[in-house]
Amino acid sequence: MKSLLHTKPLTYIVLIILLILPFLVDDLSSIIDGFYAILVHPSLLISDYLRIGGLGASLLNLALLMVMNIVLIKMLKLKLNGPIFAGLLTIAGFAFFGKNLINALPIYLGIYLNSKFQKVEFKSLIIVLLFSTGIGPIVSYLIFGTGWAYYLSIPAGIVVGIITGFVLPILSAHMVRFHKGYNLYNIGFTMGIISLFFSAILRNVFKLDLFSFDVSTSEDYHTLLFWLILAASLLTLLLSFISNPKAYKDYPKILKSSGRLASDFMRETSKETAMLNVGIMGLVSLLFITVLDIKINGPVFSGILTVVGFATFGKHPKNSIPVMLGATLWFLYVRHTTGSVGTGLQIAVLFVTAIAPIAGRHGVWVGILAGFTHVMFTPIAYPFQGGFDLYNNGFAAGFVAAIMIPLFDFIRKDKIGEDTP
Predict the structure, then answer these.
(1) How many structural domains is the chain composed of?
(2) Does 119 reside within a domain?
């Protein structure tokens, strides 16, 4: 008998729920108006679609992006694995925080053209594709944020999106060497480098102001989204145990993993054990935001879903909690000294798990130090990339990992498990 997590109907049930859900929380007129507002927004970091379009429109944006990507995966005859699950959940999260159909499609086309140029199967680039729309704001900004006439802005956005998608697979394969696989958001780091290039041109050649947009957020849906994540996490745990009552027996294998790229927990254990970790990481995320009194808005929701997604692709409590504690120390210091904490630091407590493999390799105390260092570095990275890279924490994490891993590998003379990804 097939496990519940291996049955096709489960996928279709999830998609149907996603398509129905927007219309259960909002009326049709508000959804249409809000969805239009999302599509024509410049979408630079930080753009909270919950504030811009409302909950119904954000959920519709999520549903359409998920349907598009799942249909693509089915067409390419790919099976669900850890990286694909992480990519899908990241898309779901950032559907509240900068990704939409308009800014995704030109990038996808660029990746497809890259596969044709390299004469490789398109499906071999699926992981890059799923994470690629983290740089979607470059498309939206050029079309809707520059103030240029549409006969100029639309071709500019499409062409730059295609070029970005084309070069992304080439660069990402090389960037992983920079941080040796200890930054789980390798694509985010790569996009940060590309964004730095575009930011320099637009700011210095075209004299455009990339930091004049409203970055306010909406916490109006905190309670609903909190309970939604809690219910989804508990349901995931329940499904894991129903599908395989002994799924927990392999869980120590996940906890022993450093999480370094590429750690596919579905392949290394089973789907049931990996999904057990997904449910646990959802609860860990909720625990941290509850203790720190962080309210859920679009960016925070995105952070939680990204943590949950990567629970099949490198993150687990043993390597994630130390870096989150390090970020928490800086969070508490800033709140104590200034009286308030900005959205960037709030989401960094979640996205800091990009460097969870550092704790997985070198232990709790180094993990805490890495998390502390990361959240101090992240705000500095943002102005360089101009807000085009939604995975700004991934951009920062690449530098943190590149600095800390060689130092602590040098200190730790045994260098256990050292290899080159």
Answers:
(1) 1
(2) no
